[in-house]
């Protein structure tokens, strides 16, 4: 029974507080304050003198013009960047953690530049390493411009080594076609590639014939008789004759 | 009438070797049987299909080189049709498998069934027991089923319950896959990819070929049945031609050239995985077959260079950096070919 009265007492107290709050929040003006407000003169709105305004506008100091920067947008961009960097470097956060991050990045960049200059490849030290293997053979290309073809050809013909003679003769034809600007010598090009570089016509036909003979003799390991070799030499000379025309 | 031509080979139109002076070719290998057969196969396939000349040459090269072929291309470029047509020109057993995600190895190889009357198990061969096996959408089956093909593709036999069952000759797997669809597909294991002699990219038809396809279809040839295609080569013919191909001449410097090309894939900085010695053998065998198809009894560097992308593109893995740069396997192979001097 006692708890019932306590509960109702709390509810009643809350109602009294809520109903009394606005009354205490807005104090009523005293009679003296009301009399003082009635004795004040009415508010008068003042306007600036238009003539005076015109004078101000005519003065150079009040003529606001947007000052254009003489810097290019690119310079402006970098100026802003460096300004920000400067602000950041002088900030409190930089002097804490970020200073060490900056040092680490700078050190890393320095090491990278040094390794690049020394041509050291350290990519294998991280993660998956591409499977590389050194080639166990020489990959240097034969330079046709460094060979003395007339001498080498004469030696091969005298020795009866017609297979070598056909090869040397074909390389000589390639060199002369390159010298004449008909072909562009590249070690990776095949005979068919060279053939396609030549414009259609008698020169291409003659070169195709010499190419086929070379392929049969060199790749096809055809054993040549002196008569066969004479035939290949005639074909080659016919090709070279077109170049000298 | 359907189909197209491959974009892969269109930049390098194939030409038969021009005739050399009679004295040079005398007493050399006679390829007239092969030449006649190829012309007949082209004619038979041309009854149904438009273009695909270079793709056909590569498929015939693979058959002569005793190799399997993986055909990759977007849907609708006649991969399956070309394979089916080629199989029809060969008078050999043919089977077709549609690979699906729930396919089991026994669905491919066969299974042992119990015979109550004899109280014994009897092996029932699966569809792999044919001479030309067309596997459609090969990348839709999971690794378990793909693994079932390892032994049969390489060793030409299967082992079931301790018994080895050899395949009949010839045995060629022609598989197709779609490069763009990822949903419900599995990447083929490297070990299986290595067992394919060639991976051929089948592209869209040229404008002329597509117009020809439309004209043929509009004129009423669209429904040309495959039955009109006649068989040209028997199993014995193929075996004889393969013997001829194996005797092709290969200059020793060319063997070194092939080894250098394949070896360079293991040294290239842009590759994570290079090609295996099986790739060298594939390049050699393919070049010998291609030379024969082009009427020569010897291999030239042109044959090797021409086949290098088809032999190497599925056997190499690019490093993640190169993949992110957008490089392709074909571009790396091209770089490698440009790095190696042609023997001359």
TrEMBL record, chain A:
Domain of life, source organism: Bacteria
Keyword Kinase in annotation: no
Compositional bias annotation for Low complexity: 25-42
InterPro entries given in the database record: TgpA-like_C
Official protein name in the record: DUF4129 domain-containing protein
This protein's record includes keyword Transmembrane: yes
Signal sequence, renumbered to the chain: 1-25
Region (Disordered): 25-47
UniProt keyword terms in alphabetical order: Membrane, Signal, Transmembrane, Transmembrane helix
Domain Protein-glutamine gamma-glutamyltransferase-like C-terminal: residue ranges: 170-234
Transmembrane stretches, start-end: 97-118
Coiled-coil intervals, chain numbering: none
UniProtKB/TrEMBL annotation, chain B:
Entry superkingdom: Bacteria
Disordered: annotated span: 1-22
Biased composition (Polar residues): 1-14
Every AAA+ ATPase domain range: 65-206
Pfam families registered for this protein in UniProt: AAA_3, AAA_lid_2
SMART domains documented for this protein: AAA (SM00382)
CDD domains cross-referenced by the UniProt entry: AAA (cd00009)
InterPro entries: AAA+_ATPase, ATPase_AAA-3, CbbQ/NirQ/NorQ/GpvN, ChlI/MoxR_AAA_lid
Protein name according to UniProt: MoxR family ATPase
Organism: Hymenobacter profundi
